Amino acid sequence: MKVSLAPIESHVLKVAGEDFKAREYEVVEIRQEELEGASETSVQNVVENTDYLVVDIALAPSFVRALVRLERSKPELFAGKVVVGLTSVVSWGQTLGEKVSDADETRRTPIPGALKLLELERLLMSCECSQVLCHGILYGSGECHAGLKHLFDQAFREGTVTLYGEGGANIPLVNVKDVVQFLDLIVASKLTKKYCLVVDEVENTLKEVTETIAASFGAKVETASLEDAIFLEEKKVDHLFLNLKPECTKVDDYVFQFSGGLASEMKAISAEYTASLGYSPHAFFLSGPPGSGKTYFAKTLCEKFGLEYVSKEVVEAMAKEKEGTEEEEGESNDENKLLTSFREIMDKPNIENKGYVLDGYPATIQEALELFPNADFQEKEKEKEEETQSSEGEEEPSPEAEAEETKKHLYPNVSIYVKADDPVLQERSAASGAADFTGRYTAFKKSSDEDKKQFQDLLKKLDENAKEQDGVEKSGEEVSTRAAVDEIAQSNGLGAYFAFMGSKFFDFDNNRKEVAPVDPTEEGEKSEEAEGEKAEAEEPEPEFSPIESLLAKIEGKTDESSEEAQGDPEEEAPKEAEEPGEATEKEEAAAQPEQKEALKEAETVDTDVSQLEELEVLIKPVKAYLASELAPAISEGFIKLVEAKPEDPVQFLGEFLVKQSESMTAELSSS
C-alpha cells in the first residue's frame, strides 16, 4: 500500500510517516515547497501514484483547492483512492453547546483566525473520496508543534508561566501518537466515517494544564487579566482560549495510548520536550572545606539554570516532616529516613527535567555509596545477597532497588571541588559569624583524608576482582580513564568516586581575596594611614566574577583565555623594544574606526530604548481604552449581529460600532 503525506513538515505527518514505515507501507513524503502554488497537473501526478493521500489542510491550502478542482473535473482518477484531510478543533472554537460530537460538524463556528480553515475543510468534504480527521490541541512528541509549546517554553526557559483569566475554560487535548493511531485506522479501512473527531477522554481546564506544565519544570504560575491576552504578540496561542467539550468519535475496541491524558503522562512528555531541545539535565556535585564558597556557587548555579537545590539540611528537613508517620510505621532508623527522603527529592519532576545541585552532600564515600550505588564496588555484597536468596528462595526486587536502577541517569555528571587557602577560609568564616571554624575545618580534613584512603582501598579490591577474571583485558579507553581517576583520588576521594562513574571533575581555586592569617594575640585599632596603605596595595577586581570563572572552568575556557591574555613574554618583549612609539600610533589609528562604530551603535541602542519607553507610556491609556471600551463593544456587536441576522453583516456591524462610539463620546464629554 502506498501512502502520500503532504506536507511532511507537518509534525503529525512526520510521526505518522515513521509509524507507516514500521508497518511496511510505502511512504511518499511531499515537501512544503512542492505544494506552494500547486497546479492540477502536479496534483494529478500525486493522485495517480498513491492509494491514500493524507493532507494537513492548514499547511496546504492551494494544494487542497487544486485537488478539489481536479476531483470535479476528473472523478475517474480518484476511483479506489482515499484523501484524508487533517485539521484541528480551532474550527470548532466558538461552537455553542456544553457537549459537541462529530454529528454537530455542520453547525461549527470557528475562532476568527480559523475561518479559512473551516472553508477548506468543507471544500474537501465535498469530494466523494474524502475523509476529515479533526484532532484536539496537540501535546507530546517533543512539543515541536504549536499545541502547548508556548506554555512549555515559558516554564522551561523563563521559570514562570502566565495564566490569563481564571483558567476555567476547557481545552480539548490529544497526544500526537493517538492522532496517528486514528490515521492508522482510516488507512486500514477500519474507520470510514466522513468526519471524525479525536480528543482525549480526560477533560482539562487551562488552569490545570498550566499548573501541570509549570510543576514539571519547577516554574511559578503568575496570573494576568484576560484582557491582557488581547495584546499578546504571539497569536499562535489563540487556541489556548477555547472552551469546548467535544466527544471523541467512537471506534470499537479502540484503546488510547495516553488514556490518562496530559497530567498522568507528564513525566514522559516533559522528557520528550527536553530531548527535542538537545538538553540533558545538569547534575552538579559541589564539595569543599567550610568557608570555600560552595553554597554560594551551588545556589547561584540553581538560579542560573533553574535547578533544584539539595543539601543535607534540605534532606533532613524533609525527613523531619515525615518523622511522625514513619515512627508509627516503625521506621526509626535515621539513615533510612535520610535515604528515603533523598530519593523522594530525586523523584521531583524538576530534577528529572532540568537537574539539581548537591551542596556538600554526600559528605563521605560511605554516604556516596548509599545515595549513588555502584555495582563494581558492591559486587561482593551482591554475591552474599544472591547466596542468601538462593538458600531462602527467590525474592522480588525491592522498590528501593528498582528506584536505584531508574535513577542512574541522574547521577552527578559534574563534580566540583571548591578550595581556597587556609587564611582565606579563616577570614570568611570569621566574617560570616560561623562558630568553631577550627573544629569544623579539622573534621573536614580528617574526613577528606579518610575518603581518599577508602576510595583507594575500593580500587584495590576492584583490581583484585579483575585479576580473578582470566583473559579479560582492559581497553585503552578504560586504562586512560582509570589513570585519570587514580590521579584525582590522590587529592579528592569523593571527586574520584564520581569520576569513576563518568562524572567530569574540576577543582576550582576560590581565593577571591588574599588575606594574612589572623593572629588572635594582636589587638588594637589600625590608624587611618595604615588603612589607606592597605587599600592602595589591594589588587584590582578580577575581570570575571567568581561564578563566571567557575563556568568558564567547567566549559574549558579558562586555560584558553589565560593563555591568550598572558602570551609568550620572550616573544613579546623584543617586539615592544623595536618600535614602541610606532606600534602605539598604529594601534590607536586602527582602534579609532572601531570606537566610532561602537559609539554609534551605543547611541542607536539608547535611542531605540528611549523611544520604546516613551511608546510604552503613550500606549498604556490606549490599551486600557481598548480593553475596557472597544473590546466589549465589539463583542456586543457580534451578539447583536447573530440575533438580527441582517442581509449585510458588515454594514450592520459598522453602524452599530458608530452608534456605540457616539454614545461613548457623549459620556466622555458629559463627564
From TrEMBL:
Composition skew (Basic and acidic residues), residue ranges: 377-387, 523-537, 572-603
GO molecular function, one term: AMP kinase activity
Record-linked Gene3D superfamilies: cAMP-dependent protein kinase regulatory subunit, dimerization-anchoring domain (1.20.890.10), NAD(P)-binding Rossmann-like Domain (3.40.50.720), P-loop containing nucleotide triphosphate hydrolases (3.40.50.300)
Keywords assigned by UniProt, alphabetized: Kinase, Nucleotide-binding, Transferase
CDD domains listed in its UniProt record: DD_AK7 (cd22967)
Coiled-coil region list: none
Protein family: Belongs to the adenylate kinase family.
The name this protein goes by in its record: adenylate kinase
Species this chain originates from: Chloropicon primus
